[in-house]
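sanity check this record:
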Amino acid sequence: MDGSVRHRIAVLLGGRSAEREVSLNTGRQVVSALEERGHEVVAVDTGESGFIESLRAAAPEVVFICLHGRFGEDGTVQGLLELLDMPYVGSGVLASALAMNKVMSKKLFAMEGLPTPADLVLRRGEPVDYAAITEALGPRTVVKPSGEGSSVGMAIVHDPSELSAAIANAFEHDALVLVERFEAGIEVTVGVIGNRDPMALPTLEIVPENEFYDYESKYVPGMSTHIIPARVSDEARATCQSIAVAAHVALGCAGMSRSDTIVTPDGHILLLETNTIPGMTATSLLPDAAAAAGITFPDLCERLVGLALDDWQDRRG
C-alpha cells in the first residue's frame, strides 16, 4: 500500500471472548500505529450493545479486526462484515472458522500431508476411556478445548492420574476436546504475511518462564523470551517456514497467520496449530518477527490494510 494514501479505518476490539482484555490491548496499539501514519481511525468495541450501528456510522473504507477467540477469530465477525460489504484485515469466514477449530484444522492438515502430533477427539456427554487414551498417546499428553485461543483451558498432563481433571477443565470451555501426544522439543513459531503469494517471516523460538506458552506467558511482559532466529538448524528453520506457508495456503488464509511448530530432539518437525489473528501487543510474536525482517509495527499494520483491500478487490473482480 502506498504510504501516502490515507484511509478511514475502523478497529474492532474488545469483544466477548475469554481474551477480551488482550483484544483491547491489541486494538489500542493498532489504533495508535495507524494514527501515527495519518489514517483516520475509529475504535469500535464489539462487546458493547449497538456496536453494529457504531460501525455503520463510522463508514470505514476498511476494518481492522483485533478480536481474539470466539466472536472474532472464528469467522463470525468476518461473516458480519461480508454482509455489511466492508473490506477487513485477515482471513475470510471459512479460513477463520477452520483455523479456530483445532479438530477440523488438524483433519485438513492431515489431508495436506502436514505432520501434526497424534491425537484423539473427545465429545462432551460421551464416555471417556482414560486408559485407552494413555495407551494410544502415552502417559504425557496435551489437552485443549477445540475452539479456544491463547491456551485458554489448555493443560499438559504429566501422568495419567491428571488426565481426568484436565479433560473436565477443557470441557468447561468447549463441547469438543482435543487430546494430543506430548512432544518435547523447541517450540518455533512462524508468522506469514500475504494473500496469493505469502511469505514467511523469520523463525522465532519461544522460551516461556512457565512450563508451556500459556496465557500468562503470552501476555505478561517478562514471562517469555523470544529468540530470533530460532536456535535450530538452518534446515529445520526452512522446514518450519515452509510448513507455516503450507498451512496458510491450505486453510485459505489472507493477510496474515502465525503457525506454531515443535522441533523434536531427533529432528522431526510437527505443526501444532495456526492462528489467523495473531496478537499485536508489545509482547506478541508476529510483530517481533516482522521487526526482525525490518518491518516496523506501523509498517506492518499498514501492510495488512493494503493486503485487505487487495484481497477484497480480487474476490469481487
